[in-house]
């Protein structure tokens, strides 16, 4: 079968699959406080449909799968899906992105099912601020989830921090300090305009040069280091002598599209070859037909633009394509 390759020669060996558009939190950058319309349960892909799709993609070069949401752990029996995926020949890396609220009780179960590694969204270490950003979340549950992930042997454990000006940028040093004595990998992510390129987003956006400025102010000696767990978009650093690392993911100020190797599959079965643009392809209607499924993914890749243009949204300039109106929770984080 043909490889998952786009017109610019980029090979795609990685897919992010949303298993639900629902979430137990309401993070300010991910979804509005009110008015979200969630897909009916019958519109959400079944585990069997997801597995059938992956069985088509693995012979085409797919090697890595990341399960996302919404919050994937609100999906019942997620460990069963992980078991099903781990049995597919060619898939050698299964990851999860979660807010970790439910992780304390499920980390070992997911590891036993075949989960390889985990990313945990954590935008503040301060209980009151975490509650504000997530609109009601309890940071202590997340911290217990991190401990459970370590105890279960999930490795690496990455903490995703979306930096927002005037909201959590004064915690940069606190997050980096976590890496000094623990093998955690903190990743600072620029706030993206997914579904809401508004003035509010522009006022909250912060370039990641701020992170290195904070290190300089603290007097820390920083060195470059290889990233844990793959060839992702993070530029990785380590404090000299630290057990963990921190990374910079800057999709807005310095896009990394030239090395993009990922596809996305929404919870309702639409292929997105690029996170930012509106182009989608409904693969669910052909699940069960191997040739049609493969052709649908190749069509999506054949129309994938060379890059997104988030920086133009920041400058309020015209763009070459139509940005998505879906929020991050509807696409898959």
Order of strands across the main sheet? 7-8-9-6-5-4-3-2-1-10-11-12
Instruction: List low-pLDDT spans.
Output: none
* Structure classification: alpha/beta
Distance between the termini: 29 Å
Largest sheet: 12 strands, mixed
Supply Rg. Answer: 19 Å
Q: Topology as H/E string?
A: EHEHEHEHHEHEHHEEEEEEHHH
Q: Which descriptor suits the 3D outline?
A: globular
Task: Tell me the total number of β-strands.
Answer: 12
The tally of helices reads: 11
Helix proportion: 25-40%
Please state the average pLDDT score.
91
Give the strand content.
Answer: 15-25%
List keywords for this structure.
alpha/beta; 11 helices; twelve-stranded mixed β-sheet; about 325 residues
What's the structural blueprint in terms of helices and strands?
Blueprint: E1 14-18, H1 47-57, E2 64-68, H2 78-86, E3 93-98, H3 103-113, E4 117-121, H4 127-134, H5 139-152, E5 157-163, H6 172-181, E6 185-190, H7 199-204, H8 209-218, E7 222-224, E8 235-239, E9 245-249, E10 262-265, E11 270-272, E12 281-282, H9 290-302, H10 310-314, H11 328-331
Parallel strand pairs: 1-2, 1-10, 2-3, 3-4, 4-5, 5-6, 6-9
Antiparallel strand pairs: 7-8, 8-9, 10-11, 11-12
């Amino acid at each position: 079968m043909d490889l998952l390759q786009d017109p610019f020669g980029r090979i795609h060996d990685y897919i992010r699959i949303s298993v639900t558009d629902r979430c137990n939190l309401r993070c300010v950058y991910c979804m509005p406080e009110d008015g979200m319309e969630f897909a009916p349960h019958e519109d959400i892909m079944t585990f069997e449909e997801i597995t059938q799709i992956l069985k088509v993609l693995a012979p085409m070069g797919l090697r890595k799968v990341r399960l996302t949401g919404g919050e994937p752990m609100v999906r019942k029996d997620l460990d069963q899906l992980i078991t099903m995926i781990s049995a597919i020949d060619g898939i050698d890396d299964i990851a999860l992105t979660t807010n970790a609220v439910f992780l304390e009780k499920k980390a070992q179960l997911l590891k036993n099912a075949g989960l390889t590694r985990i990313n945990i969204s954590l935008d503040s270490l301060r209980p009151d601020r975490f509650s504000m950003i997530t609109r009601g979340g309890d940071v202590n549950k997340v911290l217990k989830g991190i401990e459970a992930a370590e105890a279960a042997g999930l490795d690496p454990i990455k903490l995703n921090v979306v930096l927002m000006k005037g909201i959590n940028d004064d915690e940069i040093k606190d997050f980096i300090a976590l890496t000094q004595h623990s093998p955690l990998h903190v990743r600072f992510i620029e706030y993206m305009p997914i579904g809401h390129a508004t003035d509010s987003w522009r006022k909250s956006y912060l370039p990641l040069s701020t992170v290195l400025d904070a290190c300089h102010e603290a007097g820390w000696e920083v060195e470059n280091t290889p990233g844990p767990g793959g060839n992702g978009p993070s530029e990785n650093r380590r404090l000299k002598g630290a057990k963990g690392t921190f990374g910079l993911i800057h999709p807005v100020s310095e896009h990394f599209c030239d090395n993009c190797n990922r596809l996305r599959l929404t919870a309702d079965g639409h292929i997105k070859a690029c996170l930012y643009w509106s182009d989608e392809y409904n693969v669910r209607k052909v699940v069960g037909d191997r040739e049609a499924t493969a052709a649908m993914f190749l069509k999506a890749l054949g129309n994938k633009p060379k890059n997104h243009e988030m920086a133009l949204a920041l400058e309020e300039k015209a763009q070459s394509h139509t940005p998505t109106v879906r929020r991050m929770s509807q696409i898959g984080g």
